[in-house]
Amino acid sequence: MPERRKWSFLIPAAGDGIRLGLGPKAFLEIAGKTMLARVMANAAAISGDVVVGVPAGDAEAVAAAYPDAAIVAGGGTRQETIEKLLERARHTWVMIHDVARPLCSPALIEAVAEKSIETGAAAAFCPVDVPVAIVEGGRIKAHYGAREARLFQSPLAFRADLLRQAYRDAHAAGRLAQSTVELVVASGYDVRVVEGERTNIKITTDLDLALAQVIAARADDA
Amino acid sequence: MPERRKWSFLIPAAGDGIRLGLGPKAFLEIAGKTMLARVMANAAAISGDVVVGVPAGDAEAVAAAYPDAAIVAGGGTRQETIEKLLERARHTWVMIHDVARPLCSPALIEAVAEKSIETGAAAAFCPVDVPVAIVEGGRIKAHYGAREARLFQSPLAFRADLLRQAYRDAHAAGRLAQSTVELVVASGYDVRVVEGERTNIKITTDLDLALAQVIAARADDA
Fold it and tell me: Do A125 and A193 touch, CB atoms closer than 8 A?
């Protein structure tokens, strides 16, 4: 039986939630529990080394509320924030899960962790019901059926040294990516795909927030 | 000034709503109004020739409820249903809008109609917040940034003869497609892209239905 891997759990939560206009997402409540509290509970189930990136002005208050976690002031971009969290990770495997997805199930976190052992990299991807078009200048450049298309989701799980190498490569190439998976793929690593959850939504707009309240009320009732 | 185009409006509503398990979607209520009634109201705003495909057993009842529309028993697949509706279209331009998207705004319908004049084909596509992966055998074959990726949406607008040609080509090639846009693109036509609406959701699961109630309540209040 392989040795049980130890995980550092990185939570980028430094966004200012500009699109929602309700302050930093970390402190928004979904069915009576903040988004950060929900993700912290997920983290604690798998990791004894939780590192959270928050808006600089909130670091002290969050540190007081979560004395067992390492609290770091976030960077200027999500990519920078994750790099700062990675510097503080103590274990040889890291999981990343955004505070903007507070409704992820513990089962999905386990599944992504499990899958990552194959190549050192795995992530959740969400199924879609409709085909996807790749659009350029108002025209369809390519299109893919719903069966083969997936939306990026999280959590992500990596061998820490692999993720550190992807960041070094990104610096060398001056690469900026919306997603950590893109950075890792760009470095030539094979990111394994885990089927995500439709309820693990990313909360960006007030409509997402309304949907999240519905999902959370159902899950908390169950 | 160009002659005002006349539109036939085709509504595929023959699905049995198996995934939802609440009977045919057409008759599901969103905030007190059936999905079919909502799409019929959209259709009436642009078209005097509305053709609806419903489950065979419901054709008579729907015809009684909507005496001004042509009611047709749907085919075995969405592709077949639309072809049957197309046979009944009286005008030289057709718009297609699925009953599963009852929350489309009249403005989006107008925008797609307007755009279609450029090449004879246009459709709504929904923006995404995250990148898209193309997956094969559990591995990422390609990935695209959120900026260039779009989810297929509706309405669709076509010159009727162009759409009829796409169907003839599909028969000749034995082509089955999830979406009408795929058929039209496969025939070599240039489908113009119109920015869709996040609220114009496709109702497939009970979670979609819950979200639809939230969206409809807001829109009906506005």
Answer: yes
pLDDT at B37 over 50: yes
User: Is residue A201 over pLDDT 80?
Assistant: yes
Total residues found in chain B within this entry: 222
Report the chain A residue with the minimal C-alpha distance to residue B203. A129
Report residue A15 as tokens.
Answer: 């966004």
> Structure tokens of A59?
């670091």
Contact residues on chain B for A205, CB-CB shorter than 8 A = 198
Whether residue B205 lies within 8 A of chain A, CB to CB, comes out as yes
Query: Quick check: A143 and B181 CB within 8 A?
Result: yes
Tokens (6 digits) for A172 = 């060398």
Q: CB burial class (10 A; 0-12, 13-18, 19+) of residue B189?
A: buried
Residue A192 distance to chain B (closest CA, Å):
6
Percent of residues in chain B assigned helix, strand, coil, to nearest 5: 35, 25, 35
Chain A closest CA to B41's CA: distance in Å?
A: 24
> What's the sign of the alpha-carbon dihedral A190, A194, A195, A197?
negative
Nearest-Cα distance to chain B for A12, in Å, is: 16
Which among A125, A144, A211 has the least Cβ separation from residue B211?
A: A211
Q: Does A176 touch chain B (CB under 8 A)?
A: no
* Terminal-to-terminal C-alpha distance of chain B: 35
Residue A134 has pLDDT above 70, yes or no: yes
pTM of the predicted model, to two decimals?
A: 0.91
Contacts (Cβ under 8 Å, ≥6 apart) of A13: A24, A25, A26, A35, A36, A39, A52, A53, A54, A74, A98, A99
Question: Is the Cβ pair B145, A178 closer than 8 Å?
Answer: yes
Asked if A35 and A102 count as a contact pair (C-beta separation under 8 A), the reply is yes
Tell me which residue of B33, B6, B196, B7 sits closest to B105, measured CA to CA. B196
